Amino acid sequence: TSNINVYYNTVYLNATSSGTHFGTSAIFHTQSATATTAVLDLKNNILINTSTATGLGTTAAFRRSATGLENYATTSNNNIFFAGTPSAANVIYHNGTPYSTLSNFKTLVTPRETASLTENVPFISTTGSNVNFLHVNTATPTFAEGRAMVIATITDDFDGNARGTTPDIGADEFNAVADGGVIAILSPDPSAPLSGNITIKVAVKNFSTVNYVNPTLEYQVTGENPVTQTFPFTILPDSTKSFTFNTPWASKNSGNLSICARTVNVNDLNFLNDSSCILLFNRDTLDLLFLLR
User: Are residues 29 and 4 in contact, defined by beta-carbon separation less than 8 angstroms?
Assistant: First the structure.
């Protein structure tokens, strides 16, 4: 009996060759019909291969020597595979037959790899001499964040940084920045009369793969000071939540105005999705325009 436990690795391969039939693999495993021989247990790995194949060669994220799955552990999961744009020459998996897409691969190897993903993970550097070699760029959302399974015997990453309670896939444990934005102003209704104190309610979406904790939001009406409030809530990844400001807007009696609302996060590097605005047409103005027609 022998086991090959491959956990929390990052492999990045980007090779070229003038060879006639050049092919590469981010990881290779020898198939055995004996289930206890060189059993591969593959967990929490980033396996990226962006090499350029030639001739009959293929660029594969994962390659095995034959079709049998006997010594490919059913516990293998939570990996990221990437081999470029899926094609006959760029494949997630190869066992003598190419499987270019993640879905085809998963169908073949189920119940293995049910939580595995495909993505060209954003690295700060892919140059071996760089101090940030294969460190994940936290300014860009990535599937690697918080999607690894916990392995009790591995408590730190390749830098010696402690693994979190929801660890990251790959060799690098990192802290991604939440990316949230106001996607809609739910109140006031732009078509309703404006009078008295107006409730300001907004919808906020978390675009990132990490929790957006205690979001700070701000709204501002044309010509007035902004109103800022921090809300003691958590927005889960790829989720939306509505928030109502404690301070209403004391509406004006005349004139057309705009109201804008946004998230306030100094660490958010993507400001393009932070805010939403609406135009508020005062009812008195609308009535006057109607009479002048």
Answer: yes
Mean pLDDT (the chain, rounded):
91
pLDDT in tens, 131-185: 999 999 987 878 998 899 999 999 999 999 999 888 999 999 998 778 899 999 9
The C-alpha atoms of residue 63 and residue 91 are separated, in whole angstroms, by: 9
Q: How confident is the model at residue 81 (pLDDT cuts 50, 70, 90)?
A: very high
DSSP string spanning the chain? --EEEEES-EEEE------TT--EEEEEE---SSTTSSEEEEES-EEEE-----TT--EEEEEESSS--TTB-TT-BS-EEE-SS-SSSEEEEESSSEE-SHHHHHHHHTTTTTT-EE----BSB--TTSTTBT-B-TTS--TTTT-SPP-TT--B-TTSPBP-SSPPSSS----PPP-EEEEEEEES-TTS---SEE--EEEEEE-SSS-EES-EEEEEETTS--EEEE---EEPTT-EEEEE-SS-EE--SSS-EEEEEEE--TT---GGGSEEEEEE--HHHHHHHHHH-
String of b and e for 132-156 (b: at least 16 CB within 10 Å)? eebbbbbebbbbbbbbbeeeeeeee
